[in-house]
């Protein structure tokens, strides 16, 4: 560790104080921190239809199936997705609102308090999302109503995500503008996957093996 009288140490601390706006920030004649240039794109310039089309295309690249329905067809789309998957015991977070959807033969498991072992033993999880990015095919969860804690979307092998078309933005800066940065974020770009040294792709290594999206819109 550098001694207290070391000039380099003093300069580093002075710059930190300047950046944080703390007293003594200009010690040693250090100039105030320059404004960070923000010349990056702030939007994609696409209408809703184009955003939906681009997101579906990107999700398809990741091997994510997309079902489309209107607001009145969500329950039926969920029933069809679970039936095709053969899912009978499904985790649901607080605020999802599917309890009265008439999911015959499906047991809905409250996500609060379930152990990792119980989550792993479930057939899947259903969540909503906070926002989606069309250009990167990314769906973001932030733990809000209908999303639950992070483990719910990371442990079960199947993730069914209900996304409204109005939640789709074009690029990353737009998504960041919609998020509460005090909440934990889970960014999902397709099913969990990785490649070994032989470049063999394996899915389901550190998250769901299968991601499916129900896209709700006109």
Written overview of the protein:
- This protein is α/β, with parallel strands linked by helices and 218 residues long.
- The chain has 2 domains: 1-36, no CATH class; 48-216, Rossmann fold.
- It is built from 5 helices and 12 strands.
- The strands form 3 sheets. The chain has a 6-stranded parallel β-sheet, with helices on both faces.
- A hairpin with a 5-residue loop joins strand 10 and strand 11 (201-203).
- The chain is globular, with a radius of gyration of 22 Å.
- The termini are far apart.
Question: Key features?
Answer:
218 residues; alpha/beta; Rossmann fold; 2 domains; six-stranded parallel β-sheet; four-stranded mixed β-sheet; 12 strands; 24% helix
Q: What's the quaternary structure here? A: single chain
Q: Tell how many strands the DSSP assignment holds.
A: 12
- Beta-strand share of residues: 15-25%
Radius of gyration: 22 Å
Give the overall silhouette. Answer: globular
CATH architecture of the largest domain: 3-Layer(aba) Sandwich
Distance N to C terminus: 62 Å
Mean pLDDT: 86
Name of the CATH homologous superfamily of the largest domain: NagB/RpiA/CoA transferase-like
Structural class: alpha/beta
User: Could you spell the SSE succession in H and E letters?
Assistant: HHEHEEHEEEEEHEEEE
- Fraction of helical residues: 10-25%
Q: What is the highest CATH level, the class of the largest domain?
A: Alpha Beta
Low-confidence segments: none
Overall domain count: 2
* Strand order of the biggest β-sheet: 1-12-7-4-2-3
Put simply, the count of helices is 5
- Annotated CATH topology of the largest domain: Rossmann fold
Largest sheet: 6 strands, parallel
């Amino acid at each position: 560790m550098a001694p207290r009288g070391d000039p380099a140490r003093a300069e580093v601390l002075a710059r930190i104080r300047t950046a944080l706006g703390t007293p003594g920030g200009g010690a040693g004649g250090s100039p105030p921190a320059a404004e960070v240039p923000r010349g990056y794109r702030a939007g994609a310039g696409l209408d809703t239809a184009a955003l939906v089309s681009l997101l579906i295309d990107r999700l398809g690249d990741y091997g994510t199936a997309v079902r489309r329905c209107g607001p009145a067809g969500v329950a039926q789309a969920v029933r069809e997705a679970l039936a095709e998957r053969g899912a009978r015991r499904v985790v649901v977070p607080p605020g999802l609102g599917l309890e009265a959807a008439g999911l015959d033969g499906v047991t809905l498991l409250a996500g609060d308090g379930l152990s990792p072992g119980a989550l792993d033993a479930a057939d899947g999880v259903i969540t909503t999302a906070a926002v989606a990015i069309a250009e990167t095919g990314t769906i973001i969860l932030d733990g809000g109503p209908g999303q639950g804690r992070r483990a719910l979307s990371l442990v079960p092998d199947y993730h069914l995500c209900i996304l409204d078309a109005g939640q789709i933005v074009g690029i990353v800066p737009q998504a960041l503008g919609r998020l509460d940065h005090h909440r934990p974020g889970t960014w999902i770009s397709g099913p969990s996957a990785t490649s070994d040294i032989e470049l063999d792709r394996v899915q389901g290594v550190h998250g769901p093996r299968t991601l499916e999206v129900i896209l709700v819109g006109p």
